[in-house]
From TrEMBL:
Coiled coil: none annotated. Its main location: mitochondrion. GO terms for cellular component: mitochondrial small ribosomal subunit. Pfam families: MRP-S26 (PF14943). Belongs to the mitochondrion-specific ribosomal protein mS26 family. Keywords: Mitochondrion, Ribonucleoprotein, Ribosomal protein, Transit peptide. It is found in: Mitochondrion. InterPro entries: Ribosomal_mS26 (IPR026140). The keyword Mitochondrion applies. The keyword Transit peptide applies. This is Small ribosomal subunit protein mS26.
Amino acid sequence: MIPKNVLLKRVSPLITQIAEAHRKPRWEPVAKSKIYRIPKRPEISEEERLELLRINNNYKTQMRAIRRFYHEEMMRELSSLKSASSEMSQKLEAEEWEKCLHLNEKWNKEVAAEREQRRKIELDTMEEYTLKRIEAKDKEMREKIEKASAEIRLQKELSATFITPENLEAAIDTALANPIDYNFAIDLKGNHFYGRDTPVVNQDRKDNAINANT
């Protein structure tokens, strides 16, 4: 138990009560008892209704007059400014137009000069490219002519050994007198043996025979 003197010395009470207004949460629907309840429209007397209507009409009339006054004042100032600055604005517009014309002519001259310079460079480049192609074609043609001339000279030199109807019999006699056999064989060691009837001598046997004789 809590001592009595402790309870008497306490300034604040042991139990505090917080009072809060009891309200329904926002997400809950209307209560069933209040779904079909229509609030009663406040009743005012005829004199009060007429007075409120008169006050409302006076307010609308005054606000309309104020807006019209400021609108007319603004239009009057604009018209006075336009009439006063019409000549000045025309003069400024004419000066601005002349300035724009001069600036446009200057830009046109600069662009024309750049275009002419670019066209000149393109023509020089095209001319150089064309000359290079012509030189390459000429060089290729000269090489072909030189190659054809060398081939013609070679064929002329070889034509001396050609067999013609005039030297046909002499060529036949020469071939029969000097037969040439182009057949040859190769052994495993890479030795060539020309002719069809050339005897093949075994190198190992040949070496053994030489050693035996010595």
